[in-house]
Amino acid sequence: MVRNQYEIPHCDKCAARDNSVFSELVQSDLHVISSEKGCRQYSKGEMIFYADDQPSGLFCIHRGIVKLYKIGKDGKEQIIRLAQQGDIIGYRSLLSGEKYSKFAVPIADAQICHIPKSAFFSILSTNYRLSSKVMELLSTELKVAEERIMEMAQKPVSERLAETLLLLRETYGVEADNTTLKIKLTRIDLANIVGAATESVSRLLSKFKEERIIDMNGRRLKIIDPAGLAEAANLDD
Prior knowledge:
single chain; alpha+beta; Jelly Rolls; Arc Repressor Mutant, subunit A; 8 helices
């Protein structure tokens, strides 16, 4: 990856590292990554990588949110994951030696570092803590994927949408008003996460708004009644 005019954050001083698999790396390993990596700014909608690209390293999100998605046989986008500050993306394909199976694109302007395969594998082979964290990450993502498949098969769209909104609140947090989600998503993005038609999601959002469970203003969404949303999601106490 070509380095650009923006300052490249040093791993040792990177706030995002506290939330990443690199949180416990020693100084010598951090120096290797910092000296080998590149970092650049991505504009909203600018592709980071495409499905069927061959990975040359992994990406670590310094700032911003990235959606990873697949394209179904019907040509519709299905969002698989929303990655945020400190998350790594593209690592599963890198570890397996396969091409990317997903597309990756930021939903807002982002700054993302690219760690070459050689540097990552060199540290991975000698650092037990890093290899353990990567294994934990793989296991967690597999569990989430399995649970999502079960939910998609068993839950109606209204429950899936309500649970998705609660998950976004838990994962990305809220603004100072304690109601507005920090993450901004279009109705199309929400529909692609839930796995439903955009019209159905828009109709349900309007219903939740009428019931004063949520409020909306463009892409800004407020969760006014989390308990009501949990009830709509049919979550166990």
